[in-house]
Amino acid sequence: MSQSGIARLAGAMYLLTVATALFGEGHVRSSLLVSESAAQTARNLVDSNLLFRIGLVTELVTFTGVAILVWALYQLLKPVDGRLAALAAFFRLIELGVHFSAVTFGVAAMSLLSGGEYVKGFGEAQLHGLVGLALRAQLAGLQIGFIPLGIGSAVFAFLLFRSGHVPRLLAAWGVIASLLLAGYAFALVITPATSNFFYLGMVPMLI
Questions:
Q1: I want to staple 98 with a disulfide (CB 3.0 to 4.6 A). Which of 66, 142, 145, 176 is the partner?
Q2: In whole angstroms, how large is the CA radius of gyration of the chain?
Q3: CA–CA distance, 92 with 67 (Å, rounded to integer)
Q4: For residue 73, is pLDDT > 80?
Q5: DSSP, residue by residue, 34-92
Q6: pLDDT digits (tens, 9 = 90+) for 80-109
């Protein structure tokens, strides 16, 4: 592929992953998961089983698109600085490992609700608690993955700034937004109250 073809592939993957992530997180998870009630969340997942599974598949599509994006950015930017491009790709691959692993907790939650011999020993409240715990673990994995995502994305954006492939103002915004995202994820580990600043951490990256 030519450099322009690789650049267009990277741009297409940015658009695809933003669209699928907004659907999976903004629509599916936000409409089905109730943070204050494990029982209501469990009922929602039973009533909208297919929608939740589509959401899980959408997340897998997102992360697959990110893998292609990382390859394209590495190919595009290694002529600028091969070592920094490799470092950025390394962090983004860590992100993908964390995010792909997080999806398994969502699959586990659905398995708990599908019944079977291995859940008969749990009462309804206990089962709902286990489902809630699995979903919280999934969310934690998604949030932790924002740390290597932000670091790797900041390095890629810095290389885009040096390359001149995109307007330098946009690339500089990418560096700042990526570091904000990583900082937000770090702060979530320190205190859950950081979630009050969700839009500060996420919106600049979305832009």
A1: 145
A2: 19
A3: 8
A4: yes
A5: -TT-HHHHHHHHHHTHHHHHHHHHHHHHHHHHHHHHHHHHHHHHTTT-HHHHHHHHHHH
A6: 999 999 999 999 999 999 999 999 999 998
Distance (Å, whole) CA 106 – CA 131 = 9
Residue 192 CB burial class (10 angstroms; 0-12, 13-18, ≥19) = exposed
* Its pTM surpasses 0.85: yes
Rounded Cα gap, residues 66 and 57, in angstroms: 14
Distance CA(41)–CA(34), nearest Å, equals 5
Residues 6+ apart with CB under 8 A from 79: none
| 184 CB-side CA count, 13 A | 24
Query: What integer pLDDT is reported at residue 88 of this predicted model?
Result: 98
Predicted local distance difference test score (pLDDT) of residue 153: 97
Residues contacting 105, CB < 8 A, separation 6+:
134, 135, 137, 138, 141
| Mean pLDDT, residues 13-39 taken together | 87
Q: Which helix (H) or strand (E) holds 19?
A: helix 3-21
As a residue count, the chain comes to 207
- Quote the pLDDT of residue 62: 95
